[in-house]
Amino acid sequence: QVQLVESGGGLVQAGDSLRLSCVASGRTFSSYAMGWFRQAPGKEREFVAAISRYFGSTSYVDSVKGRFTISRDNAKNTVYLQMNSLKPEDTAVYHCAAKEGVSLYYTTKSRNEYDYWGQGTQVTVSS
Questions:
Q1: Pairing relation of β-strands 2-7 and 18-26?
Q2: What are the C-alpha distances in Å from 106 to residues 5, 13, 93, 127?
Q3: Residue 121's CB: how many other CB atoms inside 10 A?
């Protein structure tokens, strides 16, 4: 089992940047494919980005391509989400998630496939 704790959210203006972090504790971090999801008020939780256990295989939702970058540091048990050129529509609670039992290159956009979730960090982008 793994515990996930997100940080780095806040209130920013449109065009600003933020870097979210998600620190994992418990089992070996490199055993998990990781993802970031977000949930705005009144909306379902949606996929943002995912990264494989090794070798940096990534995927993104179209709305963040070219603006957001997911990365991980297995030595620090941490996955990051660098968010640039933020827009008001990026406002949401951002959650990281972990998927166990997958190959080194595996990523998934499906929230139902993830096994563990963090509590989330709020990102608010003002216009």
A1: antiparallel
A2: 22, 34, 25, 36
A3: 21
Distance of CA 105 to the CA centre of its chain: 17
DSSP E strands in 17-118: the ranges are: 18-26, 32-39, 46-51, 58-60, 68-73, 78-83, 92-100, 116-117
Per-residue pLDDT tens digits of the chain, which is 127 residues long: 899 999 999 999 999 999 999 999 987 999 999 999 999 999 999 999 999 999 889 999 999 999 999 999 999 999 999 999 999 999 999 999 999 988 999 999 999 999 999 999 999 999 9
**What is the rounded CA–CA span in Å between residue 37 and residue 45?**
6
Residue type, 88: P
H or E, element range at 12? strand 10-13
CB 71 within 8 A of CB 57: no
Look at the block and give the residue holding tokens 């990523």: 107
Which H or E element spans position 5?
Answer: strand 2-7
DSSP 102: -
